[in-house]
Design goal:
Largest sheet: 5 strands, parallel
Strand content: 15-25%
Number of domains: 1
GO molecular function, one term: ATP binding
Helix content: 40-55%
CATH topology: Rossmann fold
Protein name: Guanylate kinase
Number of helices: 8
Order of helices and strands: EHEEEHEEHEHEHHEHH
Bound molecules: adenosine-5'-diphosphate, guanosine-5'-monophosphate
Domain Guanylate kinase-like: 15-194
Distance between the termini: 18 Å
Catalytic activity: GMP + ATP = GDP + ADP
Shape: globular
CATH superfamily: P-loop containing nucleotide triphosphate hydrolases
CATH architecture: 3-Layer(aba) Sandwich
Function: Essential for recycling GMP and indirectly, cGMP.
CATH class: Alpha Beta
Structural class: alpha/beta
Number of strands: 9
Strand order of the largest sheet: 2-7-1-8-9
Length: 220
């Protein structure tokens, strides 16, 4: 007779807030999208922004696109967990979906800049895991911004001009990845997520599990 199948051990844990930042064009959105496609246990925090929508972007999927007035109303009513002005536009993280995900032990990914990362770190440091993505060279960063072909030349120049100031914040992050080869960079991100999910201090369910383990008396 086959032994009865036991269900896999599930240990309850807190949700993870995975923050990814980089200078524009280094590849954080590509990495984020790949992760969201593969890993169904992680959801995207969809930001609000006053930036004009790019041709490939969909309202509510990539961003919630707002007027400056609407953005200010959200910000002033404390509906944003963090917000910042980046490259001349406002961006912010809606509070409610994040609080709900954390309460339910679901992981969330944040594609936000260093100012937003700092604010989340201050407010929710125990839950935040932060990754900074660097380009292999500044020349490649410039090429990627052009290859993406979604912004005007003027916007690309603003982003390039801001990139050195953004890179200066690399030391504020838990992990730093050089996105030279995309597969290698993505593997690194997956390894980080895997290991961070296993951290003892995130797995409160381990108390009950170990208690049960110690109470068990194996029958011969
Ligand atoms: P970010 O979100 O950091 O602004 P994107 O993810 O939009 O950057 O990437 C910018 C461009 O670079 C996109 O066209 C993307 O396909 C490309 N890209 C991303 N990672 C790599 C890589 N490792 N090698 C070559 N091109 C890349
Ligand atoms: P993009 O216009 O290329 O989508 O984003 C520009 C920058 O704004 C990127 O560095 C991106 O990570 C950042 N960003 C996007 N959403 C938010 C947000 O909600 N808060 C903050 N602080 N930055 C954001």
């Amino acid at each position: 007779m086959k032994p009865a199948k036991t269900s896999p051990v599930q240990i309850a844990r807190r949700g993870l807030m995975l923050v990814i930042s980089s200078p524009s064009g280094a590849g954080k959105s590509t990495i984020a999208r790949t992760l969201l496609g593969i890993d169904k246990n992680i959801g995207l925090s969809v930001s609000v922004t006053t930036r004009p929508r790019r041709p490939s972007e969909v309202e509510g999927v990539h961003y919630h696109f707002k007027s400056v007035r609407e953005f200010e109303r959200l910000r002033d009513s404390d509906a944003l967990l963090e917000w910042a002005e980046v490259h001349g536009n406002f961006y912010g993280t809606p509070r409610e979906p994040v609080e709900q995900a954390m309460a339910e032990g679901r992981d969330m990914l944040f594609d936000i800049d260093w100012q937003g990362a700092q604010q989340l770190q201050e407010k929710m440091s125990a839950d935040v895991v932060s990754i900074f993505v660097l380009p292999p060279t500044m020349t490649e960063l410039q090429s990627r911004l052009h290859r993406r072909a979604e912004d005007s030349e003027e916007v690309i120049q603003t982003r390039l001009a801001n990139s050195r100031a953004e890179i200066a914040h690399w030391r504020e992050y838990d992990y730093v990845i050089v996105n030279d080869d995309l597969d290698t960079a993505f593997d690194a991100v997956q390894s980080i997520v895997k290991a961070e999910r296993l951290r003892r201090d995130r797995r409160h369910g381990m108390f009950d599990f170990v208690r049960g383990l110690l109470e068990e008396t194996p029958s011969l």
